[in-house]
Amino acid sequence: MITHSEQLFQQARRLMPGGVNSPVRAWRAMGMSPRFIARAQGPHIIDVDGNVYLDFVGSWGPMIVGHAHPKVLEAVQKAAAAGTSYGAPTPAEVELADLLIDAVSGLEMVRLVNSGTEATMSALRLARAATGRKKIIKFDGGYHGHADTLLVQAGSGVLTQGIPGSPGVPEEIASLTISVAYNDLNAVVQAMEHHAGDIAALIVEPVAGNMGVVLPQPDFLPGLRRLCDQRSIVLIFDEVITGFRVAWGGAQKKFGVTPDLTCLGKVIGGGLPVGAYGGRRDLMEQMAPVGPVYQAGTLSGNPLAMAAGLATLKILAEPGTYEDLEEKGCYFTEQISALAHLMKLPLRINREGSMFTIFFTDCPVNNLVEAQTSDTGRFQQFFQAMLAQGVYLPPSQFEAWFVSLAHSPEDLQKALSAGEKALLDCK
Ligand SMILES: *Cc1c(COP(=O)(O)O)cnc(C)c1O
């Protein structure tokens, strides 16, 4: 018998490309059709057939306090009752901007937008305007949204689909983007020397999340800071995932390296569409209406999004939240590791706080090439076995898993029992 999800997917595929509004949601790499979600609560999502899953996707990062948190709901409902958009400044924007600038060391001024993609493309425009240069450096497997300049050797869905870039991005634009291996400072130096005087910006995920989680080696971020300083290149941290995920104040706080510009998204919107970019005042004051660099948005600073973001960040600001997230991420990954070890299954786990990826490989994973040594067939088996036991994982080897404050020790225990069976299944 066909499930309600399958029925909806058939209909959706006639109406939307692949039946989805964002490619990885179609579960193609998993060889199955996606679940259509009816609602979510705490650490659980519930599909249209009534199946309840323990959720490790968290809407790809934003749901750090869990789904439908009462405080977030209350804030959004209150905001909605006062009207959903005015296209005019509001007190909530001032409050969120103040909170972000206070928490994130690299932010002296900030501009709120509607998505991470908007944040990164605007930050690059600013960097190009400020330096008068055209080229940018990024890293293989780094994903910074779907803007033309950034779809070169990109991670996330681009990687899962196995395409190097995207048709429709003109060669002239793609050629302005130089992509090198993550954690490879020599490659960065070479690129900077080869394109001397032409590099406007270097953009990096300070903890990579879109080729699966890859941690920066100890000298990597300080090295990037130094190399950019020597050549007056604008250093951009794309903290769309890591901002308020790996620490209050983001990866720049955790690793003690301050970028010139920072991009935020995901967590700071608490599940509503938000992005932000900001940084040095002298740079941000080049944005219109103060300066000549144009960027605008009809729904930017939307009252519902501000309310959800503020409520989420206020919960995160309570004492002990990041310790709790760290403990949960640590416990879960250590236990899975131990199980795999007992079964002699090749498995590597990269984790920073409550974000992590389990790679089915023997090889340490410090860059894209090493991530690609993973046995994706085995991941697919693992994914399917977990789903059958009510655990919902990212439908790709090359994505981050997220734990939220709402995941209880019993939830994690349940996921570990499922994990033990799933690992046996894919031995
Ligand atoms: C998700 C993501 C983006 C894009 O954000 P959207 O809101 O999906 O446009 C950019 N950078 C990183 C690091 C991301 O993970």
Descriptive terms for the model:
427 residues; alpha/beta; Aspartate Aminotransferase, domain 1; Aspartate Aminotransferase, domain 2; 7-stranded mixed sheet; 4-stranded mixed sheet; 15 helices; 14 strands; binds pyridoxal-5'-phosphate
Structure description:
There is one protein chain. The chain folds into two domains: 4-68 and 319-425, Aspartate Aminotransferase, domain 1, CATH 3.90.1150; 70-316, Aspartate Aminotransferase, domain 2. It has 15 helices and 14 strands. The chain has helices spanning 4-15, 70-81, 91-103, 116-131, 157-160, 171-174, 185-194, 220-230, 250-255, 281-284, 303-316, 321-342, 368-371, 376-388, 409-425, and strands at residues 37-41, 44-47, 52-55, 109-113, 135-139, 177-180, 199-204, 234-238, 261-264, 275-279, 348-352, 355-359, 391-392, 401-402. The strands form three sheets. Strands 4-10-9-8-7-5-6 form a seven-stranded mixed β-sheet, sandwiched between helices. A four-stranded mixed β-sheet has the order 1-2-3-13. A three-stranded antiparallel β-sheet has the order 11-12-14, covered by helices on one side. Helix 2 packs antiparallel against helix 11, helix 3 (91-103) runs parallel beside helix 11 and helix 12 runs parallel beside helix 15. The longest helix has 22 residues, at 321-342. The structure holds pyridoxal-5'-phosphate (PLP).
